[in-house]
Amino acid sequence: MPQIIEKKILAPRTNYFRLAAPLIAGHAQPGQFVVIRVEEGGERIPITIADIDTGEGSITLIIQEAGKTTERMGLLRTGDEIRDVLGPLGMPSEVGDFGTVALLGGGFGIAAIHLLAKALRKHKNYIISIIAARTKELLIMEDEMRRVSDELRVKSDDGSAGTKGLVIEPLDEMLKTGRHIDRVMAVGPIPMMRAVSELTRPYGVKTIVSLNPVMVDGTGMCGGCRVEIGGDTKFACVDGPEFDAHLVNFDEFIKRNQMYKEYEKLSAETCRLATAADALASAQVK
Q: Going by fewer Cβ within 10 Å, which terminus of the chain is more open, N or C?
């Protein structure tokens, strides 16, 4: 079972995990993900690979506590083991000599663009990274993104980090003033990715988004991650997770993503109650 080499807290409810996974590290590429299962009988969840160290044989995952399994992950510590880590899965990002590339990461999406920025820079692309969070406290990987970017713009909803405003605003300004952008990649909340898609469409700038629908097996068998791309049905786990943003049916994608919200909320609450009960029982034994 993969062991946690290092675990640290990046922001409230957002954790950094470096895992010993030499086979995955030796084959993984930017844009790919793993499916993890914390314990026997637990659910399987997809997590984007944020970094790779082939020498150490490790992969880095940035996990936000948003449900039952991610909250269980938040309880783990350095030295603990994870029951299953399956990967690398999904199609790798397209990496080449594109020219000037703008990478937009909103909130947790910053982790997803980090590895891509490293790869694109090796191909001599000029990297403009735009990252954002609601507050400075929630902003992650600013130093890491600065190291892999030629330009870094930071935005926050309240102005506590960088300048106040939305993650799409610097890109909007660049395009309006005629700055040449060859490609855009956006990862973050669905409304943010949709807004980027609509912003770049009139300019004809190739724009890629990484979709995060519900996944179960990660191999295309369950069909839960169906998305409509250019009128065709695709499976995000095997055909993606990255797609041409201008071909994504965002209305259908949003609708499907909301189908299980109530079940996820109930599962997370059940997990919190079980954890609290275990803590109380342990305290009584002592």
A: C
pLDDT band at 97; cut points 50, 70, 90: very high
Query: What's the CATH number of domain 100-210, 3.60.40.10, 3.40.50.80, 3.30.2130.30, 1.10.357.10?
Result: 3.40.50.80
Most confident of 41-50, 171-180, 259-268: 171-180
Joined together, the tokens standing for residue 166 give 């939305």
Q: CA angle at residue 197 from 102 to 178, to 5 degrees?
A: 50
Nearest of 68, 52, 86 to residue 219 by alpha carbon: 86
Fold classification of 4-89 (topology level)? Elongation Factor Tu (Ef-tu); domain 3 (2.40.30)
User: Using alpha carbons only, how large is the chain's radius of gyration in Å?
Assistant: 19
Q: At what angle do helices 250-257 and 190-200 cross, to 10 degrees?
A: 180
Give a three-class secondary structure readout of 72-130: HHHCCCCCCECCEEEEEECCCCCCCCCCEEEEEEEHHHHHHHHHHHHHHHHCCCEEEEE
From residue 48, alpha-carbon distances to 87, 156, 181, 218 in Å are 10, 23, 26, 12
What is the residue extent of each domain of the chain?
4-89, 100-210
Q: Is the pLDDT of residue 276 over 70?
A: no
> CB burial class (10 A; 0-12, 13-18, 19+) of residue 12?
exposed
Residue 271 has pLDDT above 70, yes or no: no
| pLDDT for 146 | 97
Burial class (CB in 10 A: 0-12, 13-18, 19+), 68: buried
